[in-house]
Amino acid sequence: MDFEFTEEQLMIRQAARDYAQRELIQDVLERDEKAIFPTKHVKNLAELGFMGMMVDPKYDGGGMDTISYVLAMEEFSKVDASTGVIVSVNNSLVCYGLQKFANEEQKEKYLKPLARGDYLGAFLLSEPEAGSDATSQHTKAEDKEDHYLLNGTKNWISNANSASIYLVIAQTHPEKRHHGINAFIVEKDSPGISLGPHEDKMGMRSSDTHSVMFNDVKVPKENRIGADGFGFFFAMQALEAGRIGIAAQALGIASGALERSVAYAKERKTFGTEIANHQAIAFKLADMDLKVENARNLCLKAAWMKDNGKDFRKASAYAKLYCADISMEVTTDAVQIFGGYGYVKEYHVERLMREAKLTQIYEGTSEIQKIVISRQILKD
Amino acid sequence: MKILVLISNVPDTTTKIRFTIENSFDSAGVQWIINPWDELALTRSVELKEAGAINEITVANVGGKLTEATLRKALAVGADNAVRIEAEPTDAFFVAKQLAEVAKDYDIVLAGIEASDYNGSAVGGMLAEMLGFNSVSAVSGLNIENGELVINREIDGGSQVLTVAAPVVLIVQKGIAKEPRIPAMRGIMMARKKPLDVIPAIDATNETAFVSYEMPPPKAACIMVDEENAKELIAMLHEEAKVL
């Protein structure tokens, strides 16, 4: 066992922290209020190499490990979880999926610009009637010999408007059920693609979420990922890795709320002393700190297992479930510690609480994580 | 043109300073960083290199193996190579003597105006004297135009522009670069392969001797004065604080 970070991992954490504390903090409240996409920050983060940080350098990525990625995600999300999810979708769903399963031509054409951050990616799995139940895909990809014809609607798509590259999951052979599903690389400006209105969300308001409609969209044959019928497996593999990113995001939201609570408790006075001196607050802080520590350990363990080529399915589900749940608890406690100040936007913790809620819902709800975990336990 | 940036390894500026019972600095749990002024000097050097005005950036420090993390961060930010002189940096004269051995081969030497730990502000000036280099202090801007060094200095009520011939030691302060550069993934990756040479210290004396440390007196409690009672505040400023 070794609980020490490497010098490089620490350097990456510091770089992410510096960017978050110096830059993301500047306009995070305004972007939340007005639901503005952080275009400038995404460009800067691309220049720093954070948009494809785990991709092999031969595909223009940063070549860093998943531990570093967890550390960076925590730092971004402490300050701004919306930027966190934009980074997470591009890194752990899109780039990871392509690096692992795309062929050389696809990597050359799409992975490289995605890893450099020249393009942003989106992952299109959810549908109006297929969220947690990902097997019942209604979006059709008909095999037309020299191309596929895409028709259908995808829902709740992060980065939908800002992305140039979509990874789309669609049904080609309905009779084969989930064995008939395929994954495609689709360029967003392909004719026949249209977007629904910008979703007016409770939190993560600076990330752009839309539904995406496909109306007779032609997708070249060479843009299918893997063999015919590989799509469901592809989606599940990408989500297993994606969970680590969202877990780290939830962790960041919680640790951001904790840091703010500790600082506030040492400043705010009631009954003639700092509220940190009241056991009611001190014990709450102790509970929050323990939860954050546990959450961080689960994230790092899942990341370590992935980096070391181990089966991380259960570990990433643990991390996602626990981090999301404690993120909701810790941010709720933070608002309580801040009292009335916590309920107004200026003090950030109400925003963190709104952001935390989404981590229990997207990329597999907390309930879905329990299905993943229980199936692993019960399979033998 | 070759540039050498002197790097001090200092505790993170948010570190809570503690002393051990033996009255020495307690380094337990301290996170070490590049001295903020040195980091700005490095950032400006990287900008000048990107603009093609200089060819090579070296960073150097005097310190033990633990300081290598700080040097590697400097490599990740954009220095081409690093030199660590194997010795504890005991006083300014000793440090300047060590650095002079390395600095003699460079056209421009950048030293932060002070290190954020001991605030000595001495190494840069001593180094210039030892090397017989020109020296300009309180430099807040550096440009290289057709091989000529154009320097901005903050002076009382304004700024001064001057030129100076290399080789030169520039003692730089805030303004030399806008803000310290954050290392990119590519830089962090490349830092693995860049040379970090460790060289032995030369014999040199200490010209000062450490006696003891003392913590500043604890801050007095904040006194709140109602806005209607401005007179009371003025009286306190007169009689207690004695600042009026």
What does this entry show, briefly?
The complex is a heterodimer of chains A (380) and B (244). With 380 residues, chain A is α+β, with helices and mostly antiparallel strands.
What does this protein structure show overall?
The complex is a heterodimer of chains A (380) and B (244). Chain A has three domains: 7-119, Butyryl-Coa Dehydrogenase, subunit A, domain 1; 122-232, Butyryl-CoA Dehydrogenase, subunit A, domain 2; 236-378, Butyryl-CoA Dehydrogenase, subunit A, domain 3 (Up-down Bundle). Chain A contains ten helices and ten strands. Chain A has helices at 7-34, 39-48, 66-79, 81-101, 104-116, 231-267, 279-307, 313-338, 349-359, 366-378, and strands at residues 121-124, 140-143, 147-158, 165-171, 181-187, 193-195, 209-220, 224-225, 269-270, 273-274. In chain A, the strands form three sheets. In chain A, strands 1-4-5-8 form a four-stranded mixed β-sheet. In chain A, strands 2-3-7-6 form a four-stranded antiparallel β-sheet, with helices on one face. Chain B has helices spanning 36-50, 68-77, 92-103, 123-131, 185-191, 230-239; strands spanning 2-6, 9-11, 32-34, 56-62, 81-86, 108-112, 134-145, 148-155, 158-164, 168-172, 196-200. In chain B, helix 2 (68-77) packs across helix 5 (185-191). The longest helix of chain B is centred in the first third of the chain and has 15 residues, at 36-50. The interface between A and B is medium-sized, with 20 and 14 residues.
